[in-house]
Amino acid sequence: AEAAADLVWLYRRDPGGWRGCRSTGEVAMSWRPSTEFSGNLYKGEGILPASPRHVWECIKPVAGGLRTKWDHTVKDFEVIEAISDTISVCRTTTPSAFMKIISPREFVDVVVMKEYEDGTMLSAATNVEHPLCPPQPNFVRGFNYPCGCFCIPVPG
Question: What local confidence, expressed as pLDDT, does residue 16 receive?
Answer without folding.
Answer: 84
